Amino acid sequence: MGHHSASVWDFRVATEITKDWNGIDQIVLRNPQGASARVSLHGAQVTSWRNEQGQELLFTSSKALFKAPKAMRGGIPICFPQFGNCGSLDLHGFVRNRMWAIDDNPPPLPANHSGSKTFVDLILKSSDENMKCWPHSFEFRLRVSLATDGDLCLTSRVRNINGKSFSFSFAYHTYLLVSDISEIRIEGLETLDYLDNLSHKERFTEQGDAITFESEVDRVYLSAPNIIAVLDHERKRTFLIRKEGLPDVAVWNPWEKKSKAMTDFGDDEYKHMVCVDGAVIEKPVNLKAGEEWTGKMQISIVPSSFCSERLGLERSGLF
Q1: Does a structural domain hold residue 1?
Q2: How many domains does one find in the chain?
Q3: What would the pLDDT profile of 223-255 be if each residue is shown by its tens digit?
Q4: Domain-located, residue 307
Q5: pTM
Q6: What is the CATH number of the domain that holds 290?
Q7: Coiled-coil stretches, from where to where (predicted)?
Q8: Which domain holds residue 197?
């Protein structure tokens, strides 16, 4: 099957709606080079992102439960209106456990978000069910796009359509697939303060010149730069995570003991995943009536040799 040239690339070929094994609709995005992404209407969760060679880039547990109302263990679940566990709300909030709809008429995004991309717009509106556990009226729009160069981009917009203001935390809980966690380095978070969830959210300062993994890690790095690199030494490739409107970065690997305790996670799977989340955690967003918040994350893959050089170049002009 020959590649289409970009000029005749047909949008209808580029997006397709299929059903997963629960009969839930999922949207498949494809670019002309053969990269793809899958987004489920259950939770608006990105469940797969593959490069041009068809290799999966996101981790999903082999033991993941694909049964509503539980969010699937892997991919990119969306955590809203809270990250973590506090109060009466579900862990990581409820939007990842709701059925979303395709948004046929989204308000336009700013010009710099356009370009040659295949994308889908999803929407979740507050319902009576939400109101019981979180009594606020909102509209949550998510655009998932796959660029011609294979970059995956998620843009979330939350609007308060309520009379009273509300606050929320947020994270793109991004499970990256890696060759071996003990060979992974994360650059861009050195010298930052972080809250350590393994020490009752106590605040520490990162001392290493990069983050490496030898045991369980569950941290929220505060006021992080807008570009973070996750270097996979064995695969000689690097995930570059760029973010806007998302000051914090959560980093998580459950390691051995926690992995064995999770029913929807294989005992040794911690070796092949790391969560690096663009997030708003330390200082929740406060939205007054009629206001809208936007949080954007873009993930690219580059050969590792380019990484430090590109990091330097791109700190200033992000997107």
Answers
A1: no
A2: 1
A3: 999 999 999 999 999 999 999 999 999 999 999
A4: yes
A5: 0.89
A6: 2.70.98.10
A7: none
A8: 9-314
